[in-house]
Amino acid sequence: MSGIDMETQKTDRPAPGRPPKQWYGELAGVAATALALGLGELVAAATGGPSAPLVAVGGVAVDAAPTPVKEFAVAVFYTYDKLALQAGIVLVLAVFAAFIGVVAMRRLWFGLAGVAVFGTIGVLASATRPSATWAYPLPTVAGALAAAGLLVLLRRTLPRRAAVSAQDLGDDTGPDADVAAQGTHTLVQGAGSPSSDAGVSVLDGAGRPPGRRRFLALAIGAIGAAAVAVPGGRGLWAQRVAAARAAVVLPSPSIPAAPLPAKVSVGVPGVEPFVTRASDFYRIDTALTVPQTEPKDWRLRIHGRVKRPLTLTYEQLLARPMVERYITLACVSNEVGGRLVGNARWLGVPIKDLLDEVEPDDRADQVVSRSVDGYTAGTPTAALRDGRGALLAVGMNGEPLPVDHGFPVRMVVPGLYGYVSATKWLTELELSRFSDFSAYWVRRDYAALAPVKTQARIDTPASGKHLTQGLVMVAGVAWAPHRGVSAVEVRVDDGPWQQAQLAAVPSVDTWRQWRWPWQATPGEHRLQVRATDNTGQVQTGQVHRPLPDGATGRHTIRVTVA
């Protein structure tokens, strides 16, 4: 080798430290994975939203997560637990993708094998989802092929400096290795030739090697396209359902909800309204993304231990007599004083009428409800037939159910926690026995029978607030669905319990507002509240976490009065 050639190689050799090739590989891997996810979302708009790779893998993660992990997620992230999970999955994928990219830039086939592993996981996850069809693996397959193609293209476009670095590290399989070597020679023969971009001396107008410019354009372009495709694909998937929901005309109820009493509100600012707006209503479920079902595709199948199985379309359900009722729902994950509880005006078909029609077996003590995403809940058959007014709801606060809250159809059962009764996106009712089948949360250590516990909450003043001495109105809500609240009491520090004033309610199935006028004195004080239901049961002071059948204890706040 000539002295000039040796000098040229020394000039091209990168400074000691991490070789440039590594960050090129990391970027390539992230770009390829982003493209796979984005294309997968677009294809899933046609094959069904749950078939998208991120949604399918996330769904498996949700199902496989231990109960303590789920409880931790709800406690920490509240109703944003699914968003946090998706962010975590994306972060793990990014690390895996960066590794694949680095490997691919050094050994292409090893990188492609990593893509195949990623694709296999996605295919298995999508194919095993409860609502899976033959088309569910297609988004993952399309995404994996696109990722592999982009890795090959980026490897071929790898800047020559990085290719030379690979040779310096003893990697004779770097992309365009022969071209890189030729580029070193080109520097001697004619570095200023506009037709050569092999050496570092050949720069574009911005002072960068053309190979680097093309590499960055491809990689960043793929990431940008994915950033548009992921929400775009989900938007396409949801747009049809939103349009179909907007076209629904709800029938007038044959039995309207009772008019709200004039004094249903205590008139204290800061207390949650008697009727919770749909946008403020809590949402806790196992669906990583909101299931999307058009009314024309919806079917309800009632089967199992029955004499007369029944299948209904959405139109047939709407044609049945409708009942409208105010009902309070509560989540079993709600901590004492928490806000995973809400009250709304529901419109629907009485479940009792449907069960009477199919004639259940006398031994069928459980109704297993299934969602379109495979979620199951087990409700006591007796609770659906005892006249408490359980509904297959199609409307909420005068409008078709919001998609987030179960459109087209969900269950609403007064007096039971949602995990055993309030299945959203309902598609199936199976008459069964508790001894024969354990529903989703029961298999995860929750109780099979779960009546809502009597609870009271202080909405105002907020805990930690600094108050001025004198009259302070302490107020909030209390609930004991299907039993009703008969009394609410408040005490300051360790003083005697004081009776609060109760607002009126339309039935025992809703929460009840309350207020208590307090002559606040200077100092730090502890305020505590308890409720009594219509059976005479006083809210317990024993503190217990939500698992296995709901939290107990008394809501307590601390304030400072000056």
From TrEMBL:
Membrane recorded as keyword: yes
Record keywords: Membrane, Transmembrane, Transmembrane helix
InterPro entries linked to this entry: Ig_E-set, OxRdtase_Mopterin-bd_dom, OxRdtase_Mopterin-bd_sf
Residue ranges of the TM segments: 83-103, 108-128, 134-154, 215-237
Location of the Oxidoreductase molybdopterin-binding domain: 288-435
Name of the featured protein: DMSO/TMAO reductase YedYZ molybdopterin-dependent catalytic subunit
Organism listed in the record: Streptomyces achromogenes
